[in-house]
Amino acid sequence: MEVGERRLPKRVGNAIHAVGRRKRATARVYLSEGEGTLVINGHPAEDYFSSYLDAPEHLEKTLKQPFYATGTNGKFDVKARVAGGGYTGQLEAVRLGIARALLGVTEEYRTPLRQAGLLTRDSREVERKKYGRRKARKSEQYSKR
Known about the structure:
Helix content is 31%, strand content 23%. With 145 residues, the chain is α+β, with helices and mostly antiparallel strands. It is elongated and about 70 Å long.
């Protein structure tokens, strides 16, 4: 790969493959023409995340955000394999994967996705716990006497 060259999502059969990551979660997303079904680890997205989320509107808003930004809601099917992390990390990893896969459809989607902030990988990770401390930064309470 040349310097400055962009790595676009790969075409696998009739699907477009992209990877999304967030915290410790990794999502492999396969985007294909369809009627808008979201399947995660072999289950519909609502069923997969139902035990974690109280409000299905949050799931709808987060996962379908790239489709709303590009105006392609209901035009693509999504199959995702996600591993690691918690439900928030997995949810946002799938969202990044969908946004990256949409770039494989057409490069015209880059501007609306970039403006919505959906192409930026959130690099924040949990800081490790240090010895002699209660958590990563919290220390024992100082006692003068």
